[in-house]
């Protein structure tokens, strides 16, 4: 059997329908514990990021179809360039001449591939993108890698976890916050952020950007992470003043557990100041 | 874009009232219905559960990867037409997952589900000790003696993390019937599991 006793309180909380309170059936508890441990397959972070990126591209394509405000998107480039790049009997010269749109798409694709997305920074002048899509063409991770961070090291307990905002960066286009979490005891939390809000004393408004980096970390014996890190991404919707720094107020709420995601731990506030780059 | 700022726990006096809250999942869904870029929050919430469920239902890890991608793509595309009708979002998402799975089984029949337990044992064994591996092997063999519907039920409860009423909604059955089936199933498993 397992080398450690199941955490009974957590187990009964998750499976209260299977383990009724007041009935101390050790064999049933053991079975439920082992089923829980066995069936909580470790989720590959790389797969989560890969599918997440695909969804962002799909979302961009859908937005393009619905609004026609975005002349170019990644998905359409890939779809159109793949099948008949050099059709039967075609030469490269014919391709360039006969397919100017294809040529333009290939140039954009090359820019995307070789610059890792940064090429779309010129979108501010030639491509009008709705705010929500800025981070779809330039992924949050790519944008975050170009920022200058301010050290925060703010730690607060969130449920039975210690959450630390380690650093953050703030520009007119994005605000990125790195965080870590840790717990010393078996936890029903897994470091996943369930909900967020960010405000400033100047009345600025921020939108959480889909595609935030999911937390990564070690797993405990019941497949719940007990420490790890993640990133939060926001896009400023409206900046109210021209001040070069902001007093910011972040409310952070972690999910209760990976198997009962509708329960959340109480939100906790972090207050900090950041310079506007 | 109006992504769910669900933490409006500030009183009139400005003093934050901190207490356990229920995530307004419906607000998340509504936001994603009108702005697909908000789908990321739902994706983060459900990726692990969907992947875990599918990983248990197919033999190959690659199949689970592929099916997970299909589920979320279908969900993204169908989301504008989603109507809650009082059922949690999870039931809708796992109905999609089961449909994707059924479609895969139709096109490429497999010997049985939860036969994946053999692979799962290997997965866990990479990081767990020998004792735990033996436990999973024993449990895996036991689960393989169950009929597919029973294995699906267990996967929905333990891997997908659905409650009995949610499972009932996914399967089109009554919650009481699901509870009884689960209870009987566990009692039966318990007898055989600990008789070994």
Give an overview in words.
The complex is a heterodimer of chains A (277) and B (196). In chain A, helix 4 crosses helix 6. Chain A is an alpha+beta fold and 277 residues long. Chain A contains nine helices and nine strands. In chain A, the strands form two sheets. In chain A, strands 1, 2, 3, 5, 6 and 7 form a six-stranded antiparallel sheet that branches. A three-stranded antiparallel sheet of chain A has the order 4-8-9, with no helix packed on it. Chain B is mainly α and 196 residues long. Chain B starts with 24 loop residues before the first helix and ends with a helix. In chain B, helix 2 crosses helix 4 and helix 3 crosses helix 4. At the A-B interface, helix 2, helix 3 and strand 4 of A face helix 2, helix 3, helix 5, helix 6 and helix 7 of B.
Cα Rg of chain A: 24 Å
Write the H/E string of chain A, N to C: HHHHHHHHHEEEEEEEEE
**Helix content percent band of chain A:** 25-40%
In angstroms, what is the radius of gyration of chain B?
A: 19 Å
Helix content of chain B: 55-70%
What portion of the residues of chain A fall into strands of 2 or more residues?
25-35%
Largest sheet of chain B: none
Average pLDDT figure of chain A: 64
Structural class category of chain B: mainly alpha
> On the 0-100 scale, what is the average pLDDT of chain B?
76
Biggest beta sheet summary of chain A:
6 strands, antiparallel
Distance N to C terminus of chain A: 56 Å
């Amino acid at each position: 059997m397992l080398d450690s006793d199941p955490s009974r309180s957590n187990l009964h909380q998750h499976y209260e329908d299977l383990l009724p309170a007041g009935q101390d059936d050790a064999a049933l508890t053991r079975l439920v514990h082992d089923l829980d441990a066995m069936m909580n397959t470790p989720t590959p972070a790389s797969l989560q990021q890969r599918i997440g990126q695909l969804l962002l591209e799909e979302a961009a394509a859908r937005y393009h179809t619905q609004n026609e405000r975005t002349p170019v998107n990644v998905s359409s480039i890939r779809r159109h360039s793949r099948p008949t790049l050099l059709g039967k009997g075609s030469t490269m010269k014919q391709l360039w001449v006969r397919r100017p749109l294809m040529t333009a798409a290939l140039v954009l694709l090359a820019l995307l591939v070789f610059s890792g997305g940064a090429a779309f920074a010129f979108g501010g002048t030639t491509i009008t993108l709705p705010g929500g899509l800025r981070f779809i063409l330039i992924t949050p991770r790519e944008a975050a890698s170009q920022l200058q961070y301010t050290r925060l090291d703010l730690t607060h307990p969130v449920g039975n976890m210690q959450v630390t905002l380690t650093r953050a960066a703030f520009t007119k286009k994005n605000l990125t916050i790195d965080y870590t979490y840790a717990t010393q005891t078996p936890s029903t939390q897994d470091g996943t952020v369930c909900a967020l809000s960010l405000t400033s004393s100047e009345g600025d408004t921020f939108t959480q950007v889909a595609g935030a980096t999911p937390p990564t970390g070690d797993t405990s014996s019941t497949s719940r992470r007990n420490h790890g890190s993640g990133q939060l991404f926001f896009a400023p919707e409206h900046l109210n003043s021209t001040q070069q720094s902001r007093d910011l107020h972040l409310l952070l709420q972690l999910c209760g557990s990976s198997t009962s995601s509708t329960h959340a731990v109480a939100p906790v506030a972090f207050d900090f100041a950041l310079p506007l780059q | 874009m109006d992504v769910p700022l669900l933490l409006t726990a500030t009183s009139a006096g400005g003093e934050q009232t901190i207490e356990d809250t229920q995530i307004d999942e419906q607000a998340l869904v509504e936001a994603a219905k009108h702005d697909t870029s908000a789908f990321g929050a739902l994706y983060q919430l459900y990726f692990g559960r969907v992947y875990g469920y599918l990983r248990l239902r197919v033999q190959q890890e690659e199949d689970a990867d592929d099916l997970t991608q299909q589920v979320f793509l279908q969900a993204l595309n169908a989301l504008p037409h989603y109507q809650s009708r009082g059922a949690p979002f999870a039931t809708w998402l796992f109905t999609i997952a089961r449909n994707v799975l059924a479609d895969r089984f139709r096109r490429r029949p497999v010997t049985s589900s939860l036969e994946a337990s053999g692979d799962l044992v290997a997965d866990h064994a990479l990081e767990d000790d020998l004792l735990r591996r033996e436990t999973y092997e024993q449990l895996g063999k036991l689960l393989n003696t169950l009929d597919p519907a029973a294995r699906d039920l267990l996967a929905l409860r333990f891997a997908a993390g659905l409650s009995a009423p949610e499972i009932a909604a996914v399967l089109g059955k009554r919650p009481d019937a699901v509870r009884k089936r689960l209870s009987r199933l566990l009692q039966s498993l318990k007898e055989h599991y600990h008789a070994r």
